[in-house]
Specification:
Belongs to the Bfd family. The protein is mainly alpha-helical. About 55% of the residues lie in helices and about 5% in strands. Strand 1 and strand 2 form a beta hairpin.
Length: about 80
């Protein structure tokens, strides 16, 4: 298996970042919450941004259009 590591600190691969993005993590901060990538030395954050910018996040279109995503809707609902 060919593993391309994005985050050396935590051993997170590009495939894992893409999987988290498919599961709804559309920002580097959400990726960090899902797998800790980018939370130690921070050198992988730009790479994570690039992966997300290449369409790894299926909700990116909604975010770019200013439409609320499910997590934002839940936050709005809880605030009410």
């Amino acid at each position: 298996m060919n593993r391309v590591f994005v985050c050396s600190c935590f051993g997170i691969t590009e495939q894992q970042v893409k999987k988290h993005a498919e599961d709804g993590a559309c920002t580097p901060r959400q990726i960090a919450s899902a797998c800790k990538a980018g939370t130690d030395c921070g050198s992988c954050v730009r790479r994570i941004q690039a992966i997300l910018g290449r369409g790894a996040c299926p909700r990116r279109d909604l975010v770019d259009q200013g439409q609320p995503v499910l997590a934002e809707l839940v936050e709005l609902d809880e605030a009410a």
